[in-house]
Design brief:
The chain is mainly α and 117 residues long. Helices cover 71% and strands 0% of the residues. It is built from seven helices and no strands. The longest helix is centred in the C-terminal third of the chain and has 24 residues.
Length: 117
Amino acid sequence: MNKQEFGRRLNDARKKIGMKTETLAEEIDVSVGFLHDIFRGRTYPSVETFVKLVNALGCSANELLRGEPWPVDETAVDSRLLSIRELPPDRARHVCNVLDAILTDLEQAKECAPSEK
């Protein structure tokens, strides 16, 4: 992967969630100009800044570095489902309600994200 490809992936990840460059720069404590240099493939961020970028954009390092989202660990999902099934019914219902709310919020955020052109 070269600097241009990394910059494109980073900018795509930012656009995907509808975040302005200025907002991202402020959130990770860098200048807008520095972000533009990364987007244009002129430089790479430091490791510290890279970690801040991943956290601010809510994506995986794998997504930025390799262009593919981190695969879901089916074993971890199955383990969590078993844990929920072992809860008393009222607690399991509460967990399911919380998960439903999170999934609804994620779906709404996805629908509100600007369409890619």
